[in-house]
Amino acid sequence: MRHYPINLNLKGRLVVVVGGGRVAARKAARLVGAGARVLVVAPVVEESLAALAAQERVLHRCRTYQPGDLAGATLVFAATSEPAVNREVAREAGELNILVDCVDLSEDGDFVTPAVLEQGDLLITVSTGGASPSLSKRIVDQLRPQFGPEYGEAVALLSAVREKLLTEKVGNAYNDTVFAALAALDLPALIKNGQRDAIDQILLKLSAAGAAPGSVGAGKEDPS
Ligand SMILES: C[C@@]1(CC(=O)O)c2cc3[nH]c(cc4nc(cc5[nH]c(cc(n2)[C@H]1CCC(=O)O)[C@@](C)(CC(=O)O)[C@@H]5CCC(=O)O)C(CC(=O)O)=C4CCC(=O)O)c(CCC(=O)O)c3CC(=O)O
Ligand SMILES: NC(=O)C1=CN([C@@H]2O[C@H](COP(=O)(O)OP(=O)(O)OC[C@H]3O[C@@H](n4cnc5c(N)ncnc54)[C@H](O)[C@@H]3O)[C@@H](O)[C@H]2O)C=CC1
């Protein structure tokens, strides 16, 4: 394995994207989705980036890259169409100890971005270590039909149950039993088949030892 997999929480962090074409736009849109503060440095930006800038969801510095543009960044994307500029950006990032993704030559960078399948908080990512981005994309496209919106709902429900159990100071052994029982269920299938009453019954049964599911039920009515 050439890369170490990690899912970053970039909420409120400054990320600088140098370049404003199709590739920069793809990276910037996902960064905005993750709650990062995004600065785009480019003399020309494509339509979707211009729209994000107009909505003040990214900051656009409308000129070519200059040394100093990376100040304060947590991450950097060198995403121009000029290899020499991308190298220069990578060099400055290295000096500042900021991790950089060089979109035209992964060997010059510190990280690469994977193809992504997202359903709520479920994140399935595929990478080939830079060998074949289009294969990464194809694998995600093949997985997409198997992981519909019910997976997002299942994750949200599991998260609520988990938070409730962990904040109710129920014994660890009890929690372990409940988590194991929940993990053994095919919750996404139950959700997909509309079996919300069945899920609420299961949650009530699991909570019999003391942790009422309360507001975490799957049905429209609060089961508690
Ligand atoms: C190393 C990496 C660096 C990085 O960008 O982080 C990188 C590098 C390069 N990509 C190139 C080409 C293409 N990239 C795509 C698409 C995607 N590229 C993505 C990631 C990555 N691309 C990282 C490694 C990912 C991995 O490990 O597999 C995806 C998965 C995610 C994303 O962009 O965030 C996204 C899918 C988005 C989606 O799901 O929709 C397409 C297809 C398309 O655009 O439809 C093509 C054209 C077809 C082809 O060439 O395969 C070139 C050659 C450029 C040239 O010819 O000059 C380089 C440079 C090089 O190879 O060195
Ligand atoms: N990683 C990936 O997913 C992919 C990477 N690529 C690589 O990424 C490069 C960029 O691709 P696109 O976005 O499609 O190119 P593009 O031609 O659409 O956009 C290039 C952008 O770079 C900006 N730019 C040029 N010189 C600059 C400078 N000195 N300072 C700041 N910005 C500058 C331009 O204003 C423009 O916004 C390609 O040249 C290719 O090598 C291409 C396809 C996919």
TrEMBL record:
Is Oxidoreductase given among the entry's keywords?
Answer: yes
The metabolic or biological pathway listed in the UniProt record of this protein is: Porphyrin-containing compound metabolism; siroheme biosynthesis; sirohydrochlorin from precorrin-2: step 1/1
Name the source's superkingdom.
Bacteria
This one is known as precorrin-2 dehydrogenase
The record's SUPFAM superfamilies line, in alphabetical order, gives:
NAD(P)-binding Rossmann-fold domains, Siroheme synthase middle domains-like
- Which keywords, in A-to-Z order, does the entry hold? NAD, Oxidoreductase, Porphyrin biosynthesis
Specify whether NAD is a keyword of the entry: yes
